[in-house]
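We emphasize that the prediction below concerns an isolated chain of 135 residues; any contacts that depend on oligomerization or on bound cofactors are therefore not represented. The input was used exactly as deposited, without trimming of termini.
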Amino acid sequence: MICHTCGRVIKNEEANFCEYCGVSFRGENAFDINSSPVAPVTETVIVNPKDKPVSFLNWFGSQLLMFVPYVGLIMLFIWAFGNNTPVSKKNWARAMLVIMLISVILLLAIKRSLGYEEIINNFFGDMTEYNNSIY
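Result of the prediction step, given as a C-alpha cell string:
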C-alpha cells in the first residue's frame, strides 16, 4: 500500500495509520487503495558541502589564527562573509565580530565617562613619579 500523503510504501496492508507521516487510512481521511498513488519519496539525501561539520584541526587552527595581529580580524571577515565557508564557522565568525564590536563600544563608553588619564592611571599607576626619577 502507498500513502497518498507522503508517498511512501507501507508494508502492512492492514495498517490504520501511515508509519511515516501518521495520516489515517480509515475514517474521514481514508482513500481508495486502488487509486493512482503519489510518486514515492526517495530516501536520497543531498549533502551540501557547507553543511559538513568542521573538523577539530580546522577549529583548532582557526582559534590559533585569532592570536595573530590583524590576520585574525581579516580572517573573521573572510569567514563571516565568504561563500565557501561552512555554515557553523560562518555563524561563529559573525558572532565573534559582533562581540568585538560590542567590546569596542563599551571601551569607548568607559573611556569617555571616566576620562583617558584615569584609565591609564588605574592600569599603570601614577607614572609622574617614575618619569621624574628618570630625568
